[in-house]
């Protein structure tokens, strides 16, 4: 009888012990039923607003269409939450957009196309696996067709002003063909021949109604997304002070219509290092230029050291090396 009484009292004790043992497996931040308590920090991830009046070069983007809205949303999320890359984009844009913007305006190309250069290269002198080079990612043959010099000594695809003008000419010609800047942008990615083939095959005349390869179908939306972020960075979580941005480079130019056999000596003559010379003139590929045709090259020279060096000033101004050079410094910035 006593054993039976002991057994009756033991059952609830064992049950309570097991219940406490099970409960101890729940963390302090969790509640029964897998309900997680509020975190003790401020980090949040948000869906992002679609800006009102979304457009490319004044051409409306039909975001009322679910497919268009979601394709834009994808690129907006990718660029907003790839913070390191987009921060670099914003910083570099402060340095290079002031050089790109007036050239686009002179060539009659909308200002929005500066964002095309940004998504093409990140505003760096990269080379694609296919061989496209420079800020505007121009192929060798295309560059030559657009009037750029491309050889083993000089590659003007890396010359920002000249390559910008070449890209603008391509875009303006595309606009004359399509009468539409959005299609002109798409043609920059896949070429006019490829785009024409798709427009004809699908019997369409609108980028947003075309079924395209993934790269081109994302291309315009990448431009639109980075445009939205840079025009309103705070809305998308980017907070920068003025001194966080990369400052424009301060230089003047000298005109040269002769060969330069030694650019290291040329740089020293102008009181800069060879590294500074190549940094300001990435279109120069070798340590000298064979200029048998007498072409006039404009070479940028830093007004002050880009890297904080203190140079001894010459007793008299160093004149540009040219048969008919203007001794006055031609200041670009």
Helix run count: 11
Instruction: From the 3D structure, determine the CATH topology of the largest domain.
Output: Lysozyme
- Strand order, largest beta sheet: 6-5-7
Instruction: Output the structural class.
Output: mainly alpha
Strand content: 5-15%
Q: Gyration radius, to the nearest Å? A: 30 Å
User: Into which percent range does the helicity of residues fall?
Assistant: 40-55%
Q: How many β strands by DSSP?
A: 7
**Termini, distance in Å?**
104 Å
Ranges with pLDDT <50 over ≥5 residues? Answer: 26-32, 312-333
In total, how many domains does the architecture comprise? 2
Tell me, briefly, the overall form: globular
Order of helices and strands: HEEEEHHHHHHHHEHHEE
Quickly name the level 1 CATH class of the largest domain: Mainly Alpha
Task: Provide the CATH architecture of the largest domain.
Answer: Orthogonal Bundle
Mean pLDDT: 86
- Main pleated-sheet profile: 3 strands, antiparallel
């Amino acid at each position: 009888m006593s054993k039976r009484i002991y057994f009756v009292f033991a059952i609830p004790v064992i049950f309570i012990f097991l219940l406490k043992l099970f409960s101890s497996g729940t963390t302090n931040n969790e509640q029964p039923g897998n309900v997680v308590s509020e975190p003790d920090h401020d980090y949040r991830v948000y869906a992002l607003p679609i800006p009102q009046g979304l457009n490319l070069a004044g051409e409306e983007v039909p975001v009322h269409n679910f497919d268009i809205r979601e394709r834009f949303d994808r690129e907006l999320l990718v660029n907003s939450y790839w913070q390191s890359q987009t921060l670099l984009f914003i910083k570099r844009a402060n340095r290079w957009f002031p050089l790109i913007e007036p050239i686009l305006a002179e060539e009659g190309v909308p200002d929005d196309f500066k964002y095309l250069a940004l998504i093409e290269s990140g505003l760096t002198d990269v080379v694609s696996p296919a061989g496209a080079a420079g800020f505007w990612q121009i192929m060798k043959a295309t560059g030559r067709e657009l009037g750029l010099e491309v050889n083993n000594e000089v590659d003007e695809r890396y010359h920002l002003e000249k390559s910008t003008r070449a890209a603008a000419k391509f875009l303006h010609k595309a606009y004359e063909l399509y009468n539409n800047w959005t299609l002109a942008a798409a043609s920059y990615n896949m070429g006019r021949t490829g785009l024409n083939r798709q427009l004809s095959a699908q019997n369409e005349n609108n980028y947003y109604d075309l079924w395209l390869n993934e790269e081109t179908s994302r291309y315009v939306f990448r431009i639109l997304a980075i445009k939205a972020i840079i025009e309103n960075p705070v809305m998308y979580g980017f907070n920068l002070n003025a001194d966080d941005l990369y400052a424009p480079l301060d230089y003047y130019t000298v005109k040269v219509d002769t060969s330069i056999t030694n650019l290291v000596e040329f740089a020293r003559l102008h009181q800069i290092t060879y590294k500074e010379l190549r940094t300001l003139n990435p279109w120069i590929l070798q340590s000298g230029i064979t200029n048998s045709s007498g072409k006039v090259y404009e070479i940028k020279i830093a007004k002050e050291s880009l890297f904080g060096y203190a140079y001894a000033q010459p007793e008299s101004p160093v004149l540009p090396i040219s048969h008919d050079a203007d001794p006055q410094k031609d200041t670009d910035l």
